[in-house]
Amino acid sequence: MPTEASVEVHFIFSDEAGVYQPDPSRSSLRAHPYYCRAAVGVSASDWVALRELFEAEVGRLGVPPEQELKWAYIQSIIQHRVRGEAIPIRRDYSWCSAYSNEQLIGFVRQSLSFLRDAPSSWAVLTFTSSIPFQKWTTDQMLLWHVQELMQRTEMHLRPGNNLGVFFLDPTSDGARDRRLREAYAELYRNGDFIEEYRHVKDSLAFEVSHHSFGVWLADYVAGIFNGWLKGYRTSTELFADLVWPILRKDGRGRAEGWGIREVPSSHDLRKRLRERCANRAVAERF
After folding, report:
1. CB neighbours (10 Å) of residue 56?
2. What's this model's pTM, rounded to 2 decimal places?
3. Distance from CA of residue 168 to its chain's centroid?
């Protein structure tokens, strides 16, 4: 039996972008055409080095204590400026107005470059295309996304004596988080098409995002992926430079089905995704 010291531990951080609704309105479909989730993995040893680099970058920018520079905050600040609007002083992101657009995007770029350059880093992305009259509940959709991340993590860590520990940003619904934790444990015990989950920990953990730089990074990856799907220029540039290099890929360098998974599975979406991945540096609506 291998000793405890021979096991290499990997931390997997996950966050979401976009909104899923079982029966979205037209305005919601326009605002949130996709629900996305990202999982970002690094070895425990690389996590230690990344923490030092990230904390130094936070200090250089001067992010206030107990604040998190969310991707959604950056988007909101930039949108106000594009429209020539004053930034509302009572919004959660109002403190970000002290920074220029270049400083905000530069912080994200530098932070993700640390992740990209970490030897053990990898990522998996999942997305759901919003369409009217979907019959799946929010709980079911969230579970499917996490199940996909569990499966890809098990496959990624299976070569070698590795163990992955999941950390998710909690949702605003504590009861939903408990149900998700229980569903995760059920999958772990009984499996699915993966008969045994031997390379992921048996319990799902939640971390408050502003206390976890790993969740910060997962928030950026999920937000950039969502923007790439929408065809936004800055997101597309960041995706090509910083997210694509760490995505899981098959032996031919293809990410669709390996590092990017549509939920639920769709032959049509997979085909469109394959075409988009082949031209990932170009901003086009998906």
Report:
1. 10
2. 0.92
3. 10
